[in-house]
Amino acid sequence: MKNKNWSVLLGAAFLMATSAVGPGFLTQTTVFTQQLAASFGFVILISIILDIGVQLNVWRVIAVSERRAQDIANLVLPGLGAFISFLIVLGGLAFNIGNVGGAGLGFNVLLGISAEAGAMLAAAMAVGVFLVREAGKVMDRFAQVMGLLMILLIVYVAITSAPPVGEAITKTFLPDEVDVLAVVTLVGGYITFAGGHRLLDAGVKGKESLRQVNTSAVSGIAVASVIRIFLFLAALGVVSKGLVLDAANPPASVFRLAAGEVGYRLFGVVMLSAAVTSIVGSAYTSVSFVKSFSGTIQKYENWVIIGFILVSTAIFVTIGQPVRLLILAGALNGLILPLTLGLILVAAYKPAIVGAYRHPPLLTVFGLLVVLVMACLGGYTLWQQLPKLLE
Description:
Elements: H1 3-20, H2 23-36, H3 40-65, H4 69-76, H5 80-111, H6 115-129, H7 135-161, H8 165-173, H9 180-186, H10 193-201, H11 210-239, H12 250-288, H13 295-299, H14 301-319, H15 323-347, H16 351-354, H17 361-390
């Protein structure tokens, strides 16, 4: 495989992985480890298996159809692509406000400046990625560098916390308890499409590219999984010693309790890296869902992405994180995956969309299982959140 292709495949893999590893990811992993202890390893294992099924289904159909998810949706059912794009942009904006806030917190830990000032500084970094001529290549390399930095720092803290590795391995296969909602929370939502769309933009498409697509999809899941596993081990090392995490900022307290003030500063770097890469990935993915509807957006894609980042930042700086919008986006995100994955599976069997391509039956069965489980639990989550939205 040519070096150029490797760069594109790794870029798409890291874009998906680092976009998924945002402030919420850090907090969820830490909180679930506190609740489930070593048994959280089982949740991680199941979520990795489900993610592999989701990614391979989505990325393969995008590649062979040579179309983005919203265009595939419109071919399955006219108008569905526009509806999905609306949900994606709404969710992407809400999550990006959270990402901007997380980046502000990272700078606050590192430099002592306010979260608002840190958010503006982080936004400037993210905007810088899209100001260069070859923004796609810069985005790929930025995601790779930040992803590797996060892995190294989290591995260091995991080693420092001295977790009970033997127990973690045992409970991964023989858990004391299983939290199904934790599994649903960990399985990717709209950001699943980040890498698939990036490969399409980079020209990796068609049946002949399927092996490369598979490699990139699995690599992305592997990167995100490595980060989550070592973050889990770091938190487990702290929790297993009976130390109490700060409820206001669980992941920061893991780093501090494991490695002292140095660990706390490292948390600032990890939080900043996770948040800025998520800002970049979320903005790119959200705009990729609407650019096929407008020649103007397609022509000025980078400027639209920059505008998306600036709007997210402005909302955070002026009114903070709008709770109801974040609740709604989180609840809707639980429905986006089964809806989009379902239509992808339908499209996989339409010759008008995928030509002579034959989708692997095992992937279809696996995908349908994920659709059913996620639809039920996503609907339940949305029903639970309705009272909070109507307050």
